Each structure stands twice: as C-alpha cells, then as structure tokens.
Amino acid sequence: MKPLACGLILVLLLALSACTTTTVDEYRENSTSLILESSERVVVLGRRHYADYETEPDFIDCIGDKLNADHEVSVLPESEFVDQLYPWFEPRTAPLGLKRLAKMLDEPMIAQRFKEQGLRYMIWVDGSTETTDKSGSVSCAIGPGGGGCFGFATWEKTGTYEAIIWDLQTLKESGRVKVEAQGSSYMVAIILPIPIIAQVQDQACDGIGLQLRSFFSGNTAGETS
Length: 225
What we know:
Elements lengths: L1 H16 L2 E9 L5 E2 L5 E6 L10 H11 L7 E2 L1 H7 L13 H8 L2 H9 L2 E25 L2 E22 L4 E25 L3 H14 L2 E2 L8
Helix pairs in contact: 2-6
C-alpha cells in the first residue's frame, strides 16, 4: 500500500502544479469601442494557408462562443460563412490582406452575400497549439500475476494566436489581439496511468475571446423591448 499511497500524494501535488500561464496583448486603432448594430454580425475565421499547421476549427468555435456569451455580439458560425461564400474563402483563395478583400467585394455577387449575412466585422485568427518539449516515459506490461503501468512523463504545450479585426464597412484594420498560453502536463503511472493535463488551448481561448469581446459595444441582438 505504501507505493500506492505515495503515488496518490504525488498525483495530488502535480494536480496543484499543472497550471497554465497566459499573456494577452492588444492593439486598437481607436480608443473607443467598435459599434455593432442589432442587425450586424461578426464572423471569426481561422487561417489555414500553411502546410505545417492550421488554426484549429474547435478553437475558432470557442472564440465565437466567448464573443456571443452575453448575446451582445452576434457571431456567424465559420462553417456557415464558408459554405455561403464558397469557393472564395477556401484556404487557397481566401484573402490574406484588405486590398485583396476590397477587390473581392467589387464583385456584386460576393458583396451581395456579405450584405445578406449582415456582416460588419471579420476576425482572422492565426496560430496553433503545439507540444514544445517531452521527457520521461510510461510503460505497461501484463504478466501471470496481473498487469499495470509504471513511469512518469511530462510535456510542455504552447498556444500562440493572433486575431486581426477587419471593418468591412471602412475596409480598415480595427485592432489586434495576441495571446500566448503555456502549460505543463503530466502522466503518472502507478498501476493505472493518471493524466494531469494543462488546459492550454482553453486558456488561450479565454484570453483572446474575452479581450476581443471588449472591443465591441452597442449590439442589442437578442433583447426585446
């Protein structure tokens, strides 16, 4: 029982230390909040132009949920927007800059679809969460007397993301938010493997989503008079 008791104590200590640190920076074009009328919406899109990584779709959905948490910012789901604007916002054709977007909006069909969706702001999110360091190992075996896993492993994860807000009315950049979240995760195995996971991506979503929400005001979507 002593090894098991020691293992439980170790797990408890690691659980208390498996935390995530988050740093958020922002830039605003103007000190005033961005006005969003009740009929206007925001769309959050992930950059997926690179071969070595893509901005995770579930992370984009998480940011949308944070923006719309209090029903003050109406968010058009990314998948719905991409379907409505197919094929102009596929990874190979989506605009990387405002000049390219301005040329796209010169096309009446594209401009009409933007208008039908009530879009006022587009938020591009670029980045990913990656494992940066691993150490230790866990091994499992089965024998005549039973089986189990033994060992200890740890790994570091870093999530780095940047969101850029485009004003579709003025075709100018309204602001940026950058977040970096870092955390250590552990796997302790004393007969049974017990993972202790640092919620790096969740913390990055909280940081960038709440900061983006602070940019907006004036939307009364979801309210009744």
